[in-house]
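As a representative case, the lines below give one protein's residues and fold tokens.
***
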Amino acid sequence: MLTYKAAYKWTEGVFLGEVLDFPGTVSFGYTLEEARKNLASALFDMAETNLLGGEPLPLPDPKVSDPDADLDEPIYLTIQTGQRLSVQVAAGAP
């Protein structure tokens, strides 16, 4: 299991979410819960794309932070290999 850092900002009526240590992994939602689900889905897609393309996953950086974030929390990525790639993602709870 890899533990990345998710950050959320409340702006203009939506929550913007970003996985700080997995470049390009961003999403949004109209509620925090929706933003968490959408960000977990984006992380799944990014991880699957990297792995299927033969690219390594970025290493989590526990020191990364966004001082402008309203909330940051861990987001977990679990990878299972076999005949079919399986990636499971779970957002942390505050």
Summary: The longest helix spans residues 32-52. The chain has one domain: 2-91.
